[in-house]
Amino acid sequence: MSPLLPLGLFLMSEVAEHRDAVRNRRGGLFLTRLRISNYKSIEKCDVEFRPLTMLVGRNGSGKSNFLDALRFVVDSLQTSVDHAIKWRGGIDSVRRRSTGHPRNFAIGLDFDLSDELSASYVFEIGSSAGGAFVVRQERLKVVHASGRTQAYFRVTDGEVEASATQMPPAARDRLYLVHAAGLPEFRLAYDALLAMGFYNLNPAAMKELQAPDAGELLHRDGANIASVVGRLAADQPDTISRIRSYLATIVPGIVGVARIGLGPRETIEFRQQVEGSKHPWRFYAASMSDGTLRALGTLVAVTQLAEQKQRVRLVGIEEPETALHPAAAGALIDALREAACHTQVIVTTHSPDLIDQIDSANDRLLAVQASEGNTQVGPVDAASQAAIRDHLYTPGELLRLDQLQIDRRDLERQRQLVLFDGDEGAP
Q: What is the mean pLDDT of residues 183-203?
């Protein structure tokens, strides 16, 4: 593929080549399906993804809770279930609150490991007396493209059933995959699930002078962006060049961005063309707008480690369009779609301008709404799809009219969700 240029500089043949490449490949698709039961405001959810997926809905509809279910998986594997639950305020803040008082919550993921291997991972966590919790059930199944089960384990109330003969004992307060990852047949799935990153970028943190670090991964709020930009410039010059090009399209006048040291601290230095000046002016991050910093953070989040073997498999970003001019939506979505060729991207938004740029043939739009305190997520209904297809309304216009509704038939299907059926673990 040709080097990435700002949208306005693509030759028409390059645009066609890029779109055909995306259409004819799975791109950065990693997570294919997510199932959630009784997590925070979500009672039942069962949705599928594409390389670029947008979740659109009102403030408070539960878009952040949807992404947080994925982040809970990463936190629980990377640290512990105990830490992940306490960080969110305790078990009563994690399991869904309702008159039915559900005691357990569950999360299930279907994901690709390679061209030949896929996996299904699901766990259920229940509460017990005194605000404690236990891992009730957990299952991982790795399947070859031929349909043959490569490896599996299932843990029920501390009892382990597995395809491997030498399995470690189970602990009821930890996910078993942490222990099983010591075996090669399960390590690939463990590493893949940890290769997900989630971002709620904070311009205030990005403006502060930052302590240098290795710059391997961008922090959730973007607080180490100077180090990450510095590493990209040193290790992935093509990637940082692409970031600069897109940033120049999103924020006209920007001609450069680089890490700069200020004594024991560092920050981002922007170079911006100013009318009447022979040379670009230089500005530190503290002088730049919130929209500019969020745009830079978004571009870095979706491209970091793109050229590395141990790359980020999925990136979730909350409202990347915040504080951006509507005219920048086209360039932003093009950058996200290009990134989705190597890294799956999920964004939450309530921007009509952003979703108007969606490509229905290759991207996925999921509507999110709250009904009596319950978050519902699903594809838009047939009437909305027909109105968009027949050019009666754009997705953004339907959103402004509050007419972008979820397919009721799909919601009925989701209500039948069962994450454990008793025999899925074994071949």
A: 94
Q: Are 140 and 177 in contact (CB under 8 A)?
A: yes
* Tens digits of residue pLDDT in 292-303: 999 999 999 998
The type of residue at 5 is L
Does residue 180 carry a pLDDT above 60? yes
Question: pLDDT value at position 164?
Answer: 80
Identify which of 376, 371, 366, 375 has the alpha carbon closest to the alpha carbon of residue 404: 366
> Residue 101's pLDDT is what?
61
For residue 34, pLDDT over 60 is answered with yes
pLDDT at 310: 63
Q: What is the pLDDT of residues 306-327, one digit of tens each?
A: 555 566 899 999 999 988 888 8
Q: How many angstroms separate the CA atoms of 347 and 69, rounded?
A: 14
Alpha-carbon distance 58 to 236, whole Å?
A: 38
pLDDT at 3 over 80: no
CA distance 149 to 425: 10
Q: What is the SS3 assignment for the chain?
A: CCCCCCHHHCCHHHHHHHHHHHHCCCCCCCEEEEEEEEECCEEEEEEECCCEEEEECCCCCCHHHHHHHHHHHHHHHHCCHHHHHHHCCCHHHHECCCCCCCCEEEEEEEEECCCCEEEEEEEEEEECHHHCEEEEEEEEEEEECCCCEEEEEEEECCEEEECCCCCCCCCCCCCHHHHHCCCHHHHHHHHHHHCEEEECCCHHHHHCCECCCCCCCCCCCCCCHHHHHHHHHHHCHHHHHHHHHHHHHHCCCEEEEEEEEECCEEEEEEEECCCCCCCCEEEEHHHCCHHHHHHHHHHHHHHCCCCCCCCCCEEEEECCCCCCCHHHHHHHHHHHHHHCCCCEEEEEECCHHHHCCCCCCCCEEEEEEEECCEEEEEEECHHHHHHHHCCCCCHHHHHHCCCCCECHHHHHHHHCCCCCCCCCCCC
Bridge partners (DSSP) listed for residue 161: 154
Judged against a pLDDT cut of 90, whether residue 35 lies above it is answered with: yes
